[in-house]
Fold each of these.
Amino acid sequence: MERWLALLAALVAALIGVLFFWLGGPTRPSTEIAQRVFVVEVRDHYFDPPGLTVQPNDRVVWVLKENAQGNGHTVTAYHPSQDRPLRIPAGARPWNSGLMTQIGQSYSYVFSLAGVYDYFCALHEQQGMVGRVIVGGPASAFAVEQGLPAAAQSSIPTIEELSGVVGEAFSALALLQGIAYLTEQSQTALALRQLKEFQSVFSQSALAEALAKQGVREQFENRLSVLEALLSRGAPISAVAQTVAHAKSLLDALTRL
Ligand SMILES: [Cu+2]
């Protein structure tokens, strides 16, 4: 009898241990907390923004926003495993969302290695539905002659564009979309931190200067402040989304290539 009790006690102890490990799992890594979330909208037939710059460990989420023809879209890395030339860093994990057909459906990828990542929609590559993510600092482009469809090659933002104000505006756009997305996912604290971090670097940025030249810097900063207030008091997603949309529209003049 005592043996059974001892066995039972050991079993319960083991179960509790597993439970603690399991519960402790998701909150564990401190690096994950530093991660920002950028959202690229998947539309008919382009990615918005078509290019952006992030830091290692940042997450990019592609969200399906349009699917008028019903055939869907994919987000697929240029990689030999997809019968395409290698256009992501050697050693980086390739990705393929598979067919996305439901509006609101999303696919996410965490970029860990520095470098240039090009991707395409398997259905509309020929129509130039391609995108580029630069991870880390200055990068060098791929050779132009790599057998991409002409429309695809000409739609990918150049390294120069992404390293300049256009790229900053693209990244800001994706970051703002990320804030709306995080709010939607009830991750308001993360959204707020992402916003504050952006605000702290914005004032010194070339983007701020460019917006000043357009005469909309103050308006843009006001939107960021409103957004901060909304997130701080846990305002509904509709109010957050509206403010994000307004801030995004102020970037329009810079993001039209
Ligand atoms: Cu597509």
Note: The pocket of copper (II) ion is lined by residues 45, 73, 121, 123-124, 129 (CB under 6 Å).
Amino acid sequence: MYVHWHRRDLRLADNRGLAAAADREPVVPVFVLDDAVLEHASPIRISGLLSALAALRERYRDRGSDLVVLAGDPREVLPELAVDLGAEGVGWNDDYSGLAADRDVAVRAAVEEAGLEAESHRDAIFHGPGSITPNQGEFYSVYSYFWKKWRDREKAEPIGAPTAGDLADVSGDPLPSAADLGFPEPEADPPEVGPGAARDRLEAFVDGPIYRYDEDRDYPTREGTSRLSVHLKWGTIGIREVYAATVAALEGADDEAEREAVEEFQSQLAWREFYAHVLHFNPETVHENFNEYEEGIEWRTDPEGLAAWKRGETGYPIVDAGMRQLRREGYVHNRVRMIAASFLTKDLLIDWREGYDWYRRKLADHETANDVGGWQWAASTGTDAQPYFRIFNPMTQGERYDPDAEYVREYVPALAGVPADAIHSWHELPVRKRRELAPEYPDPIVDHAERREEALETFRRARGEE
Ligand SMILES: Cc1cc2nc3c(=O)[nH]c(=O)nc-3n(C[C@H](O)[C@H](O)[C@H](O)COP(=O)(O)OP(=O)(O)OC[C@H]3O[C@@H](n4cnc5c(N)ncnc54)[C@H](O)[C@@H]3O)c2cc1C
């Protein structure tokens, strides 16, 4: 027997570690409810995890096996189980955050100490950290160079799921509930997370929207993106399967424009790997700026501003709609994530770590590498970040990407009856007019033009230019 330790690879198909284990011995699939990991979890992510585990277990049961769920410290419970079963070894797929990497080193040592084999595999990404590098240094900090190499590298094909004969005849205890783990119900309506839901998403996306992706992806009401993030986060779909679907889409493209749209989507998959590399080599960037400014950035302490941002009550409609989408769905459209992050870090000049912490708690698809990468990009502190002098204007962004204000009206009911042009010029309307149109909706908490100047000054000072 061979133990496969599932972590963020909650699927049977296209799973490299699982396939490698199944090639040698009947596999005992295991998940460990690890206190050190649960400590960092949030209600919405626990809900995603439990939904994915239930779907995974069902697939194992369909094959006459089961998912063994253990609780405790993987350094102890994994070797213990493997020794009890007389297994040859324990295998798993790599993870790239600092915490995960440290844990894996410790588990490997414990498994080997018990006289067993420990084996890890690259699965979640195509090209591991250290395999796409500049002439000097271990990782690229400029995405476009990374992308060119990533795009031209050969990509592995998807692999099939193990069959009943590959799996050990084991049975597991019932899964705990969120309450058993000490988590309340999430505030947001959680998405369904599992291989079936993931595959449905992928199929629907490559069937049409992928061919308009480069045009539609920036418009939050067009449903132009894949919505695969929560599945890539939990590994309920394999990256090789996703990529193979994009290759098939390329072959089915009717013209150059469609091919470019598919390639634009592939380049988002490469962003994900770019940030995984950056985090792997810079685990401290979860807490620290990637690019430290000479004099340090003088972030403001503004608990009221932060609370208004979290509640979606800044008086900037597109920002508020995004923050309310987050609380309602555990998801925010990418363009709006950027606008809301820019508003927090530039208009409010609040430290990106506050925003990261909120997204981390509220996003169903929270993935450390992408979340830190996105925040540091918006705050102009990251790799290949938004230059500090390019500050999003939330009104013009709203006008451009949500011209009919449909997105805003969907998430901010107080603005439901307000015409789009008034929504887009909310900050300029006389107070009397605002009260008349939407008495429940707040006035802008700051003046964007003023705050823009103040942010520029702050960043110039941080650079030692004043
Ligand atoms: C401040 C901020 C925070 C973010 N936090 C997260 C996060 O916690 N988890 C997360 O997966 N993404 C995060 N992103 C990136 C992006 O917003 C989401 O990946 C995307 O909105 C998910 O929707 P989708 O699956 O429909 O994306 P699609 O547009 O369909 O993209 C396909 C996949 O590519 C990857 N991807 C797309 N854009 C990016 C990007 N900019 N960086 C890295 N990978 C990307 C994701 O895995 C995504 O699922 C963040 C962006 C910002 C600006």
Note: DSSP finds 21 helices and five strands in the chain.
